Please model this.
Amino acid sequence: MSRSDEIGADEDILAALIEVSKTPEGRQGLSDVLADTLSLLPVSPSRLLLLRLRLLRNLLAGDEFNQLAFIESSGPSVVASSVLSFPSLAPDAARAALQALGNTALAGEFHRDAVWEALFPEVLGEFAGVRNTGVLDPLCMVLDTCCGGEGGRRRLDELCHEDLGLPILVQVVNTASQVEHKEEWLEWLLFKVCVEEEKFESLFNALCSTNDVECTDSGEYNAKHAFLLGTLSRCLNTHPKEVTVTDSFAHHVFDVHKHAAETVNFTHRGTSPLPTGRPAIDILGYTLQLLRDICAWESSSSETQGPVDSLLQTGLVKRLLKYLGELEPPSTIRKSMAGGQGDNHPALENAKVCPYIGYRRDLVAVIANCLHGRKKVQDEIRKLGGIMLLLQQCVIDEDNPYLREWGLLAIKNLLEENEENQKEVSELEMQEPVITPEIANIGLKVEIDKETGRPKLVNTSDT
Model:
């Protein structure tokens, strides 16, 4: 039998074993195969290596006996050295190897520590250099799993070490941003590193170096920065009750937002929602959405109110009102402005425009969430003369989907149990014209609720 025939026969046997190992009963019955498979890995040609890695992956899925035997046989080191022995790291082999190692790490602290010791930092760095989404997901699984449990804090500190682990995370973000990877293992890993363990600033800064030509685009920002913030925003938005936000992270996000606001050109109207493909604009938007969800998460928890209260002390609402006031009015109001001049009205000459579709809405959303149940914020907005500005957001805007809904929520939160604000709005109703000519022209007015005696914003076209 030729060597080629032998390999073909081995492939058939391995394919059959892989099929059997897909069930718990099959994995238990194949326990004796694990040691032989490990011993053959270092001498396996590429075709057989991939199949043997896939067999190991299956054997290690939830089988405690196999997982322990794998560790006792120095399995993590054998797998790593076998995969890396080839001149170039094949994505399929890297994926199967990481899946096997991830299944092992899930077994407990003893297993996580053994996997980490065998892989960190050199091997993990090699895997991180494979720009393939199929490799990235199990890599994030291994990293996230190893950074959990009893010894997770120590390993996480090592992963965030400037010289040892941080380059691995930079590679992960770089690859993920290029292949547009959006799986949950990546989200949980980055959220754990940046938010829960307060390493956001370190990673954010590490994504840009003087040798990175991308950093010349949009000032200091590049696509990796935007991707990181977009991933964190998505994680917080989809798992608000499963994550914890720290003061440090909230302040870093606000600082980045303020800097982005100074970088973005507000004279060019955006024509697309996030992501726009322009890093500074995407960062402006993702930081706003993070602030929105931080405040929403905060207002739903009576036990922990640190981050938003801390942000409010740094002038969050005052700054957002300033940004909102600098914008041109919403499209509905612009169209109704005196003389039918619309966008050519003299009052709009120096007004800023929304750099992406949804920017105004996101500003109003953050303010609305900050207002919820906070009399200090209600009073601050009144003292800053912001009531009229918020009333003007209760309209439909072509460039800001759901602006009216967020505007109405902001007004509801602004007036709730605040007699001073209710009085000011009711006094506006007594004035002629009602609120502003623009608001009156589009069919909005303030009415006094007959049952409660409180003012409410109504659409006259509905009556």
Q: What stands out?
A: The longest strand covers residues 444-448. The mean pLDDT is 87.
